[in-house]
Write a structure and sequence with these properties.
This protein has helices spanning about 1-10, 10-25, 35-45, and strands at about 60, 60-64. It has about 60 residues and is mainly alpha-helical.
């Protein structure tokens, strides 16, 4: 069963890593984090990968 669960998301994981690699290939090093976030957002949109960007979550200390 564990192997089936591992394989369940392997295609999606591969696509996400591919998006991150493409952003790095295009931009290289040295930009602020927000630039990479925006570029990754565009790349994931172009690859038809749905996502949610920076939403609040609750913890024992409040919202983070």
């Amino acid at each position: 069963m564990a192997q089936i669960e591992t394989m369940k998301y392997s295609e999606l994981t591969e696509k996400i890593i591919g998006c991150a690699m493409e952003v790095h290939r295009q931009l290289g090093n040295g930009f602020q984090e927000v630039i990479y976030q925006r570029a990754l957002e565009i790349e994931m949109y172009e690859q038809h990968i749905s996502y949610e960007r920076e939403y609040e979550i609750s913890s024992r200390r409040g919202k983070i």
